[in-house]
Amino acid sequence: MIQNQRSDQHFCVFELILFYCAIEKLQTFYSDFSIAERFGENAIRYRFEGALDWRKNVIFMTELVMVLNWKIWEHYKTNEPFARLYSELYERAYAEAEKNFDEEFI
């Protein structure tokens, strides 16, 4: 129960940051990864691979990278394996963005 409350609190803070930065959330990446966490690292990887279907869309890739960065921050003190996994996925997503987009987008 405590873990669910913590995740809900992080989600609310994430939503507030998006609101105050005037960023409209277009995908459900944060919620999708939060659900996947309940099923373990393989589920997180599976969701990430699905998210890469958007690799040619600069807006969605930006949101994916933001969510992965947020998830690293969310877990770095409480769940080191998840934090390391999200860090690895962040690096992969960033590499995909570098490969698919011009310098003006990165």
Radius of gyration: 14 Å
The overall average pLDDT, rounded, is 82
**Percent of residues in helices:** over 70%
Number of helices: 5
The helix/strand order is HHHHH
Low-confidence stretches: 1-5
Count the E strands. Answer: 0
Distance between the termini: 39 Å
Largest sheet: number of strands, sense, barrel closure: none
Dominant shape: globular
Given helix and strand content, the structural type is mainly alpha
What percentage of amino acids are in beta strands? under 5%
Number of domains: 1
Structure description:
It contains five helices and no strands. Helix 2 (about 30-35) packs antiparallel against helix 3 (about 40-50) and helix 4 (about 60-75) runs antiparallel to helix 5 (about 80-100). Helix content is about 75%, strand content about 0%. The chain has about 110 residues and is mainly α. The N and C termini lie far apart (about 40 Å). The protein has one domain. The radius of gyration is 14 Å and the shape is globular.
